Automatic annotation (TrEMBL):
Pfam families: Nuc_deoxyri_tr3. This is YtoQ family protein. It comes from the Bacteria. InterPro entries: YtoQ_family_protein (IPR019884).
Length: 149
């Protein structure tokens, strides 16, 4: 069995690298959003032209980024959505909702401080992890039936 995993959410820490490195040797392919924050924010105006109004600047970028995100989530077998501590990631919540609506296997990743705020998102997930290694352990178990340790 091969799994296509889409890694969505927070872009300010190395959680994606931890999962990708930990999953080496498993039959898994990974995809995700553009994680270069400046490129993600400015892609719309860089490609389609400047906008004096910040709303339209952000709107153009969000629409172009949505092309990649929609394709990645639609093609994924498993969607992992990470909520970090530093920012409120409304886009991550949106991605989790989209994955749930499409019937994707959803793993939510966040610390205990977000448990109450994300209770509805967590309720839609098949697993709620606190550490990237737990996501790796889930993928290993799903693919091989092997428990950690």
């Amino acid at each position: 069995m091969t799994l296509k995993v889409y890694l969505s959410g927070e872009i300010h820490t190395d959680w994606r690298d931890q999962i990708i490195t930990g999953a080496q040797g498993l039959d898994v392919s990974f995809d995700g959003p553009v994680t270069d924050h400046a490129a993600s924010d400015d892609c719309g105006v860089e490609i389609l032209g400047a906008e004096p109004d910040k709303f339209w600047h952000d709107h153009k970028g969000a629409m172009i980024n949505a092309i990649r995100t929609r394709k990645g989530i639609a093609d994924a077998d498993v969607v992992v959505v990470r909520f970090g501590d530093q920012y409120k990631q409304w886009n991550a919540a949106f991605d989790a909702g989209q994955a749930a609506a499409l019937g994707k296997s959803l793993i939510v990743l966040h610390g205990p401080d977000h448990a109450h705020a994300l209770k509805e998102v967590d309720a839609a997930a098949l697993a709620v992890a606190q550490e990237p290694q737990q996501v790796v352990d889930i993928l290993r178990y799903v693919l091989t039936g092997t428990l950690p340790g």
